[in-house]
What we know:
The protein has two domains: 2-172 and 245-286, no CATH class; 180-234. The chain is built from 16 helices and no strands. The protein has helices at 2-14, 17-39, 45-51, 56-64, 69-74, 77-81, 87-109, 112-116, 124-149, 155-170, 172-178, 183-205, 208-228, 236-244, 246-254, 260-286. Helix 7 (87-109) packs antiparallel against helix 16 (260-286). The longest helix has 27 residues, at 260-286. It is flat and about 60 Å long.
Amino acid sequence: MGAVYKKEFKAYFSNMTGYVFIAFILLFAGIFVSMTNLRGGYPNFEYSLGTISFTFLFVVPILTMRVLAEEKRSRTDQLLYSLPISVPQIIMGKYLAMLTVFAIPCGVMLLYPIILSFYGTVAVLTAYSAIFGFFMLGAALIAIGMFMSSLTESQIISAVLSFGALLLIYLMSNLSSLIPSTAAASYISFAVLVLALALIVYVMTKNYWAAFSVAAALEIALSVVYFTRTAMFEGAVGKLLSSLALYGRLDNFIYGIFDITSVIYYLTVIVIFVFFSIQSVEKRRWS
């Protein structure tokens, strides 16, 4: 795993990818800190950090688009399979390399609260809590982007898939308020989610019967619950989307709450999508 990690980390700085990723984050961090904290005289760095979290929509696809897609396109993934390490070790090596690249701008931002403290009173613990939440959010989104990269051989398609998924995640809290709170609307929404899950199963397995079985079983179970306990579905989708919103959980850190449940949630998302990436690569390995 160490060899894969070193190779991937060096690769990000043998071209412009790593530099662009770091520069983009620090550029927007500098802009918002200058506007909000320095010129506006506002001492709370964590609020600026919450504002720049939208940059993940653009920088994460830049970082993750080549990590697995390029290996598949150039057929160098076959060389990786011949190494005396397992697929999980390969994926973890690549993922940790991306996390290290992401940790560089986060490390630089650790200096910002100290610099701002020379100009006023800064809630340093709250600021560092927000930076930690920012890092955990980015780590979860990078895991999602890596999974998107494992689904295709094209870096462009990988970047588009990652951007679309991250945009949906970014708008998740707002989308929850647009969905009617009626039980019927929730039932239809869950039915669509089941079909989306079946599509993911098909993409990962290339097996129509597996995807159909998953869709049929879940749709039948969903219908049974709906017709027996209709009241459970009232406003259920909105509550689910709000509770699953990755960006929404960053707010707890920004407002000074070190939320352990949010940390566990971010770690769960990371584990799930790293596992999905492993399964996607394993499928290609044996196909």
